[in-house]
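Box 3.1. Reading complex inputs
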Amino acid sequence: MKTFDELTLSAEVAQAVRELGFAAPTPIQAQALPVLLGAPTDFIGQAATGTGKTAAFGLPLVESADPQDKTVQAVVLCPTRELALQVCGQLNLFGKHKRVRALPIYGGAGYGEQLEGLRRHPAVVVGTPGRLIDHIERGSLSLAGVRTVVLDEADEMISMGFKEDLEKILKAVPRERGRIWLFSATMSKEVRRVAETYLRHPKQAQVNASERLSATVDQVYYVVPERDKPAVLVRLIELADEFYGLIFCQTKSLVMDLTQFLTEQGFRADSLHGDKSQDDRERTLRAFRERKTNILVGTDVASRGLDVKDLTHVVNYSLPRETEVYIHRIGRTARSGRAGLAISLTAPSHRALVNRIEHATKSRMTEGKIPGRREVALKKVARLLARFLDQPQHAKAAGLLGPEWGRAAKDMTLEEILGRFIAMTAPELFDEREKTLPAYQPSAHAPAHPHAPRSAHPHPQHRAPHHGGRKPYWKKKDRG
Ligand SMILES: Nc1ncnc2c1ncn2[C@@H]1O[C@H](COP(=O)(O)OP(=O)(O)OP(=O)(O)O)[C@@H](O)[C@H]1O
Ligand SMILES: [Mg+2]
């Protein structure tokens, strides 16, 4: 199947697909759509991150829903609130012209709005398991009319301990009419056991292990002692021509500390983790999607399914032990055919994890050389030219200069003036300390404070951040 026209889509849904700008189906869509648009069947779909699994189940879901029917006809289960919201948004786009409405139901949000939404008879409900069960038990949601249940990121919901909740929901759906679809880039043994229990002769579309990663992602790792990680991270961000990325940490406290550190360094960074209020989480993600911030530091709450357009980087502050976690994290970049760079920092003692991941994903990670401060500074200078040229206020600025400026520059050559400008803007180029501070190579000479050598940053904060009674982040152990 090469085009969407070859499918039996209704005019309304076909129109929605056109408006989304989807030219041709992705491989998983080409495999799944003809099956799921046909006779009812259970289904397992496994394909790499960012390859359009949402539409692979979403289009048939909307197509099978009857907008006149006042019952909830389909349920989509997601492991995180943000993902439920995102998938719900996608379904509403697919169902826009057919007037099939989806409602998000997830924890942390008020009940009032959800009850109100349920009273307006959505055809599809997209939610996290806990809150859905709350509504079922309160009697505000009935699954008696449900014909399709989709488990997006099925394996994650099981490893998060939602297995019993899932089973409760599956049992609330009349099985004689219902069908169950499982989707994820990874499938654990555990999820296969659930599938064996609840799915009947499922049809499958599966990619092999070597295709679980996006084909367009580059993977680089740097061996960095724990205490040097913040400074190395800053160098890598500054070295990038563009950095719009997610940085994953293993713990919430590390997320908070690293965000604070990056903010103090003048970066537009924010954090996403489970200790934030739901309102805050949503505000943060919205600002990141709108590029008001360009760095989002998060726990694995941000690792599954999130589709943020055109992320240039994903950073593993430490390598995760589980290959699945690695696959989903780095899958936030290099989506739908775009290029993306996955950077992993690993402590020397955890270097073996690199081989393990390479082996499991049948892919290569290259070892990166930690850039020196001079290299970073040269890159910054190279980027200055564009900014230098783009100064519409230069005439006004010149008008502000007193006569002493003219006198001072009178005998200078153009070269000298430009040289002074660069030296003033990037003094770290000539910082003698570089010689005595190999610093970010695994060595005994690492600086006491990870950000101490960054003397030329526009927002210098040369003091160690305070963290109440907590240990500062660079002394904490992160896994890997
Ligand atoms: N046929 C298509 N043509 C172009 N873009 C598409 C197509 N299908 C989906 N997309 C876009 O590709 C992006 C990734 O899709 P989606 O989020 O469904 O991926 P996924 O396979 O679910 O990934 P993950 O495993 O990370 O959840 C989305 O922005 C989506 O709009
Ligand atoms: Mg997905």
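In summary: Confidence is low (pLDDT under 50) at residues 434-480.
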